Amino acid sequence: MDIQEFSKVTAEATPLIARLGELTSAEQRRLDVLITASAAIKTGTATLEDVEDVDLAARRKEFGIVTPYRNKRTEEQRMFHKWLTTGMAGEHRSEAIGYGPNIALSGNLASFVPNQFFSKVLRAQAQHSPLFDSENVTYISTDSGGIMSVPWFSDVESVATQIGENVSDATDTGIFQVDGQQLQTWQFSTPRILFSYESSEDIPYFDDLLADILGDRLARGVGAQLINGQSAKTAGIQGLVPSIITLGSTVLAVGSSGNTGGANLPSNSIGTVDIANLFFSLPAPYRASPKFAFICNSSTLYAISSLLDKNGKPILDVQNGRLMLLGKKVLIDENVDSIGLNKYPLIAADLSYWLTRVCPGTWYLKRYTEAPGLVEAGKYAIRLFCREGGCLMYTDNYLKSPAWALQNVSS
Hints:
single chain, 411 residues, alpha+beta, 7-stranded mixed beta sheet, 12 helices
């Protein structure tokens, strides 16, 4: 018998029983559910949630509404929910559970967090930041967060050559340039998220909600580092823009006065010439990559949407529900600069050269109950700790970079 759940049912049913004969029809029905659930919990045959499902289906049927029962929580979800609300470990599993097998949760060695929960957080990250989406970038997931060597190569200069029919080999020039760098991961944590015990009991899919909130916060925080980051690799993630600046791969804007006929300056506007200059700064092999993309924030995209080509048509297009510019996809990342003096509002890159690394094997949740403002208010808090990193897999400023940025400058 689940003592805690039985106590919960009893606590709710006791005041109703004390008012027998005075109950409304809704209160009487709720009491019937609680009594049924109490008996089921004693025998271990069902939970309060199971009984509520049956009652809900019966009530819908009374009104001619035939719907399936709501999805049941899996056993892992049940134990995770139990840990969230009570801090108690899942007794049916002996090992400590993190993302991977036998990974403990810091400070909660016996706590139960199902693998699928962290998978949901990872998916939520991809929804909120394009650099967390494996469709857009090179994306790897590792159990540990140790430093790893990341190779890169430049092969846009080397070509195949014809050799004689009786020649078994040819002079091997190889790949034009091979190099690498060390990729480090960095620790991040979300702010504490406060929940009431009541809300976590009443929301049917509370773990899904929590995963989405955590994924959103990680994507906005770590995602900002992936774009803007640090100038020095030893200080944190060297973001995409600082990496581009280090390579000297920037194009100076001329502005949109040629499009509008107005007094738009290179410091406060983007024109079609700027977009073309940026695009053609990359060698053709990079532009042809399936992971080539323009990246900008919403305000810059709005400015670009007003630009017209020589035929008077908007240069921004939509194909199969995807925003396109010069026939290439546009990714929206609010962490990119807005248009402004000395800002970098538009990036063009073969993002197969950008590596995003997550280390879910090192992730852990921490539960807080005794901090000020929690226990006396019937609340608890959750914080997620993780290690993540990223880098541009290219460091040679003597070759044509796979990533360029447009810079607004004074005229």
